Amino acid sequence: MNYILAIETSCDETAAAVVANGREVLSNIIFSQVDIHKKYGGVVPEIASRKHLDIISQIVVEAIFVAGITSDRLDAVAVTNGPGLAGALLAGLSYAKGFSYAINKPLIGVHHIEGHICANYLTEKTPEPPFICLVASGGHTHLVIAEGHTDYRVIGKTRDDACGEAFDKVARVLGLGYPGGPLIDELSKEGDPCSINFPRAMSDDSYNFSFSGLKSAVINYLHKCETTGVKIKKADVAASFQQAVVDVLVEKTINACMVNNIKQAALSGGVASNSALRTAAADACEKRGIELFIPPPSLCTDNAAMIACRAFYEYRSGRFDDFSLNAYPGLALG
Ligand code: KG4
Ligand code: ZN
């Protein structure tokens, strides 16, 4: 049996998990700092780093306890070392180095986005490379061909805002609060997604994304309603915005499958917990004979189990890091 302890602190979740054999999640502890940051309307990096430092030790102890093992049974310590907020990454990385040294077990640095992709290996039915993976989170929007368990080829990414960032910004202009994704998801259930025809940045045949034009269109729409005295139906705005995002994400993911003749698609990242996206992707994949994989919402948003899963493949190949491992806020994928 192989046990990997993983630590994830790239943004505002302090998370630790123990995963057995890269597949079986024995514990997955997440402390979300969202209540601390929401009064500022977004994550305050300095506060995030300090809070990680405050509670990381407690979260790791809990993860080992809930897993029902002791630290001497661990085989490796994995940690996200990029991309993310510099101070937040360093908080987790420093702790992981200390822990790895203390228990005399190897250290494995993990790319956060690769971790998100690997969340798809933590469910009962898992994709087998090659598959197309859409990674849509608060900081990133990537379309990737997972060519192997450790080989990822980026075929498209956002040219401006990340998809989750667009959700958060639109939620803010609608006065819904932070984080916006889940709030828009909820409110959209009461709205008509066809009521406002927001633009879909689909024009070219590339797999790149752009969400800033859509965000501006929502702002312009609201502004026009205010100046002309038209009553704003927030649920309709939320649902129409969400539909515009979902249409683009689904169409580009399906195109990537068809053009590359790949019959498996996977979703990952915080936005993959969006209910409209999950339904639309399931419908579109069924129509085209593509098998779809989506982790449960708890494994779509930031967690450490996905980091342990990604680290397992490095462990198996004997690829470890030494204590000079650094944090890279802009670490590129592929
Ligand atoms: O993957 P994640 O937890 O953190 C990053 O790596 O960024 O993603 C967080 C993002 C936030 O922008 C949040 O608003 C969005 O995921 N999100 C959602 C939903 N749940 C979280 N967006 C749309 N619908 C949701 N249900
Ligand atoms: Zn993430």
Describe the protein in words.
The chain has eleven helices and ten strands. It has 334 residues and is α/β, with parallel strands linked by helices. It folds into two domains: 133 residues, ATPase, nucleotide binding domain (Nucleotidyltransferase, domain 5), CATH 3.30.420.40; 167 residues, Nucleotidyltransferase, domain 5, CATH 3.30.420. The strands form two sheets. Strands 3-2-1-4-5 form a five-stranded mixed β-sheet, sandwiched between helices. Strands 8-7-6-9-10 form a five-stranded mixed β-sheet, sandwiched between helices. 5'-O-[(R)-(carboxyoxy)(hydroxy)phosphoryl]adenosine binds next to helix 5 and helix 6.
CATH topology of the largest domain, what is it called? Answer: Nucleotidyltransferase, domain 5
Percentage of residues in DSSP E strands = 15-25%
How many domains? The number is 2
For the record, what is the CATH homologous superfamily label of the largest domain? ATPase, nucleotide binding domain
In spatial order, strands of the major sheet run 3-2-1-4-5
- Low-confidence runs: none
